[in-house]
Amino acid sequence: MRVDRAALSRFAALRLRAPGPATALQQGDRRSPFRGRGLEFADFRPYDPGDDLRLVDWNVYFRLGVALVRQFNEERSLSVKICLDVSASMGFGTPRKADHAAQLAATLAMIALGHRDPVVLACFGGEDRGLRSRAVNLDGLPELLHLLERTEPGGRGDAHGQLVAHLGGSRCDRLVFVSDLLHEEAERDALLRLCAGACPRPVVLHVVGADELEPDLEDVERVIDSETGETLVIRDGRDAQADYARALATWLGTIEERCRGLGIQYVRTDARRGATELVHGDLYRKQVVEHIAGGAG
């Protein structure tokens, strides 16, 4: 897949917005549910032998004769997972859906790593099961980009099984699922439910190609499914165009409604749009990303 590395420098002023407390083991600048060393006072607790004497509130001790230890909200990083669909259908369109999706994945990974939010990038849906990489800061970004650039969409693997293996049964703070969602209905629903269970507020970036939004059906009599090989016969082009537009609107609406019901943020993206427009536009408005001046999540 193709990634424009030079374009990644345009997002230095952004970071991922935290949908809740950060839980990564790595120290960072986000609020977390953990108590420890930090700048924001949280509470007192009774002194236990062995506690750091520098944390004892001596004013309270001299006034009340009670040794209390100050506790602070510990600041952590967000744990981020980016799941990218590389099944055969992602290889179609001009520009290709796969290249658009790879650029989005690279952009979000760069934004996260720029603020020391560790990222797991997992590719699923193809024949190869081992397409996974992890980075904890910008030093690891080249390895993630190399994974994207050496991966090509193709095949029809067990998307759900691969995603289960990649997620590992553990929850994360921010999950971004990038796909054209051209899976059988039952499999697609299983993938969405898996995402909903892996993160408090997952994001689905639904990549739609130009040929899917505005297909030319005037002279087409047969359509072949790119993944199943099934041949579909369609009727007169003008009627087919109108029928297709209605069916597409219904299909897109059904998916968006299902995502809403599962607590998933749904963002549709036209593969012809650049990552800059999507990130600074839709993702910013939907509070998936924020400017650094926006404060801690």
Give an account of the 3D structure.
By secondary structure, this protein is of the alpha/beta class. The protein has 2 domains: 5-22 and 77-294, von Willebrand factor, type A domain (Rossmann fold), CATH 3.40.50; 29-76, no CATH class. 33% of the residues lie in helices and 24% in strands. The chain has helices at 58-64, 97-113, 141-150, 159-167, 185-198, 210-213, 237-261, 275-285; strands at 14-16, 27-36, 40-46, 68-76, 80-85, 119-124, 132-135, 174-179, 203-208, 222-224, 231-233, 265-270, 289-291.
Kindly list the characteristics that best describe this protein:
297 residues; alpha/beta; Rossmann fold; 2 domains; six-stranded mixed β-sheet; three-stranded antiparallel β-sheet; 13 strands; elongated
List the helices and strands and how they pair.
Layout: E1 14-16, E2 27-36, E3 40-46, H1 58-64, E4 68-76, E5 80-85, H2 97-113, E6 119-124, E7 132-135, H3 141-150, H4 159-167, E8 174-179, H5 185-198, E9 203-208, H6 210-213, E10 222-224, E11 231-233, H7 237-261, E12 265-270, H8 275-285, E13 289-291
Parallel strand pairs: 5-6, 5-8, 8-9, 9-12
Antiparallel strand pairs: 1-13, 2-4, 3-4, 6-7, 10-11
Helix pairs in contact: 2-3, 4-5
Percent in helix: 25-40%
Whole-number tally of structural domains:
2
| Beta-strand percentage range | 15-25%
Largest sheet: 6 strands, mixed
Q: End-to-end distance, in Å? A: 32 Å
Q: Evaluate the radius of gyration.
A: 23 Å
Order of helices and strands: EEEHEEHEEHHEHEHEEHEHE
CATH domain topology of the largest domain: Rossmann fold
- Using DSSP, what is the number of strands? 13
Query: Helical element count?
Result: 8
CATH top-level class of the largest domain: Alpha Beta
Morphology? elongated
Given helix and strand content, the structural type is alpha/beta
CATH architecture of the largest domain: 3-Layer(aba) Sandwich
Q: Mean pLDDT across all residues, rounded?
A: 84
Low-confidence region ranges = none
CATH superfamily of the largest domain: von Willebrand factor, type A domain
Question: What strand line-up does the widest sheet have?
Answer: 7-6-5-8-9-12
